[in-house]
Amino acid sequence: MVNNNCMKVLMISILVVVLLVPLSGCTSTSPSVSPTVAPEVQTLRLATTTSVQDTGLLAYLLPEFEKENNVKVQVIAKGSGEALKLGETGDVDVLIVHSPAAEDAFMAAGHGWNRTQIAHNYFVIVGPASDPAGIKGLNATEAFKKIYAANATFVSRGDNSGTASKEKDLWNKTGIKQPDNKTYAWYKSTGAGMADTLRMADQLQGYALSDKGTYLKFQKDLSLVILADNSTDMLNKYDVIAVNQTQHPYVKYDLAKKLVDYLASQPVQQKIGEYGVKDYGVPLFYPDLLSKSS
C-alpha cells in the first residue's frame, strides 16, 4: 500500500514537471522595452514685420532653428506697430520689428527683454522710370518736397508699420504736413503690406517708400525703379525682442531667448549677409553682429 502511494506521488510530481517545463519558455528574463515616444513639438509664436517674411528671409533662416530645438515657429506677419501690440498683450512670444521709436516705447513700458539689433537695410523711394517729379538722385527729404510740389501720385502703406512710421518722419523733416488721401487725390493709401503697396504703385505709376529688400524681391514683376537710395536718413534697422515673461507668465521665454541667440549667432549672421546676393547681386539685409574675422 505504501509502495502504491509512493508511486502515485512520484507520477504526480513527474506530471507537474512535464506541464511546467513548456511554460517556462514563455517567460523572458530580458527587461521589457517601452516604445520610444518622440518629444512633443513646441510652438513658438513670432510676430514679424512683413518685410522679413515677404523677402523670404525667415523661410531661409528658421528651418534649422526649428530642427535644432524641436519647435514649430508660427509666423504672424504684420506691420511693426501691430506686431508690437501683440507683444504688449502677450499674444506672441517674440518679435522682429523695424520701428525704433515704437520699440523704445515698448521697452520703456517693460514689455520686452533682450532687444537685439540683428540686421539693417535701407529704405528707398521707387517710382516710374519717367520720374515726373524729378526726384532721381535726391535725398529723401528733398524727394518728398518735389513729389508734393508736383502733386505726383504717391502710394503709402497707410498702416501702423515701421515703413509708415518712417514716411511720417520724412514728411516731418520736410516741414510739410503729411498728406492724406481724403484731401489730396494724388496721395493713395493701401492699408496693406509692402508687397501689395508696391503692386498698387506700379499699377498707378506712382511713387512709394519701400524697404529695399522687399523691392528687390519683387523687382522682376514691377516696372518701378529706385530713384532715391541709401541716403543717411533712410537707414532701416531690424530688432528681435523677446516678450517679457514677468508680465505674461505663459509666454515661452526660454524658446524666445533661444531664437534671439540663434539670430545673433555668427553662422546665422553670415547667412543673413549672403541672402539675396546670388539672385540680386547684393544682400537684401546686412548683418549687424557679424565679426569682421568671420
TrEMBL record:
Annotated InterPro entries: ABC-Tungstate_binding, PBP_domain
Q: Which Gene3D superfamilies match?
A: Periplasmic binding protein-like II
User: Could you tell me the superkingdom of the organism this chain comes from?
Assistant: Archaea
From the UniProt annotation, give the residues forming the signal peptide: none
Q: Where is the PBP domain?
A: 37-266
Q: Name one Pfam family in it.
A: PBP_like_2
Q: What is this protein called?
A: ABC-type tungstate transport system, permease component
Source organism of this protein record = Methanocella conradii (strain DSM 24694 / JCM 17849 / CGMCC 1.5162 / HZ254)
